[in-house]
């Protein structure tokens, strides 16, 4: 029962003792994740339409930005600043990607940087195998808890704590919205050939599953394929293809070399769409103080020994007011 409550309150039934649990899937807790994958098969029943596929692509891109620019560059590394309302909107947008809450995500990511590709790294393909690093690690009871000790900065923001606990709210809101959009288009614009069920399957289910594996590829593939420009002491790589499907996260070796930068494509030819959007948002004052990459850091490879605490983990600064 306590495990099932985790579908509603992600903090329910978890404790620090779980961190030492044997790393194996908690099958009851991850039923929604498994059902979402299985639901892709409903494509055969609802059919397809250009508008439904277009919404699926749009929601993939928008929510990927919520993960890359929100959960990763902002909540995990504080690579720029923003207002408290925009901060919450970034958290809400990231939560619609169905990858748990902003505190859970950033806490585990900060832990990953402190222990990258060591036995303590929960999703190192070198240590635990490709499949576990890609899709297994977060299904384990040992990784279900929000490690609040790694995010003392965000624990002081009550609305983010609430969002981290009740991520089902933005998830259900998005799913209901896609169904409502499809139902409205079916009634108002029948020539588009869509419907509520079709839009739900394409706009929410297919888009979410694609988003999962795009994001997960950075944990798994970005530590296996590509090239390493910098000696970071781990297996992080740069890969253009991964950068394109994740809006810039594929420049993973760059990121491990200098994690606090808002820009992960250090060179002009390294496409980093998330950074481009952040630059645009900075022009209208929604975000500011985007951290760059010092020339000396960008141009000179850093040996593994130079990776000190500042690059390994983001300091717990006070939240934006």
What does this structure look like?
The structure is a single chain. The chain has 321 residues and is mainly alpha-helical. The chain has one domain (2-13, 61-312). It has helices at 2-5, 31-38, 43-46, 50-76, 84-95, 102-114, 125-128, 130-136, 158-165, 168-188, 196-220, 240-245, 252-257, 273-283, 295-299, 309-312, and strands at residues 81-82, 287-288. A two-stranded antiparallel ribbon has the order 1-2. Helix 4 packs across helix 11 (196-220) and helix 5 runs parallel beside helix 9 (158-165). The two termini are 38 Å apart. Mean pLDDT is 91; it is low at 304-321.
In short:
By secondary structure, this protein is mainly alpha-helical. It is 51% helix and 1% strand. It has one domain.
Task: Please give the largest β-sheet.
Answer: 2 strands, antiparallel
Number of domains: 1
Shape assignment: globular
Which whole number gives the mean pLDDT?
91
- Low-pLDDT segments: 304-321
Distance between the termini: 38 Å
State the helix count: 16
SSE order, one letter for each helix or strand: HHHHEHHHHHHHHHHEHH
Strand order of the largest sheet: 1-2
Structural class: mainly alpha
Number of strands: 2
Q: From the alpha carbons, calculate the radius of gyration and give it in angstroms.
A: 20 Å
Helical fraction equals 40-55%
Report the sheet-strand fraction: under 5%
């Amino acid at each position: 029962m306590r495990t099932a409550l985790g579908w509603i309150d992600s903090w329910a039934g978890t404790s620090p003792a779980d961190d030492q649990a044997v790393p194996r899937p908690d099958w009851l807790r991850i039923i929604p994740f498994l059902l979402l994958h299985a639901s892709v098969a409903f494509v055969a029943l609802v059919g397809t339409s250009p508008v439904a596929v277009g919404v699926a692509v749009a929601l993939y891109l928008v929510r990927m930005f919520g993960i890359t620019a929100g959960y990763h560059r902002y909540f995990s590394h504080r690579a720029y600043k923003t207002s408290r309302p925009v901060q919450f909107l970034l958290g809400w947008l990231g939560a619609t990607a169905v990858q748990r809450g902003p505190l859970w995500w950033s806490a585990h990511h900060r832990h990953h940087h402190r222990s990258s590709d060591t036995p303590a790294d929960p999703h190192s393909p070198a240590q635990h195998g490709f499949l576990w690093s890609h899709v297994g690690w977060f299904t384990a009871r040992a990784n279900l808890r929000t490690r609040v000790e790694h995010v003392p900065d965000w624990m002081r923001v009550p609305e983010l704590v609430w969002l981290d606990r009740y991520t089902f709210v933005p998830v259900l809101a998005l799913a209901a919205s896609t169904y409502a959009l499809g139902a409205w288009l079916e009634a108002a614009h029948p020539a588009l050939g869509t419907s509520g069920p079709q839009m739900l399957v394409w706009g929410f289910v297919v888009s979410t599953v694609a988003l999962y594996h795009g994001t997960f590829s950075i944990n798994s593939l970005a530590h296996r394929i590509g090239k390493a420009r910098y000696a970071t002491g781990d297996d992080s790589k740069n890969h253009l293809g991964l950068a394109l499907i994740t809006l810039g996260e594929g420049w993973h070796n760059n990121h491990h070399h200098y994690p606090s930068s808002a820009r992960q494509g250090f060179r002009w030819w390294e496409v980093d769409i998330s950074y481009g959007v952040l630059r645009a948002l900075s022009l209208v004052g929604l975000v500011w103080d985007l951290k760059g990459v010092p020339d000396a850091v960008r141009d000179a490879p850093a040996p593994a020994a130079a990776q000190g605490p500042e690059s390994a983990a983001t300091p717990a600064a006070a939240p934006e007011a």
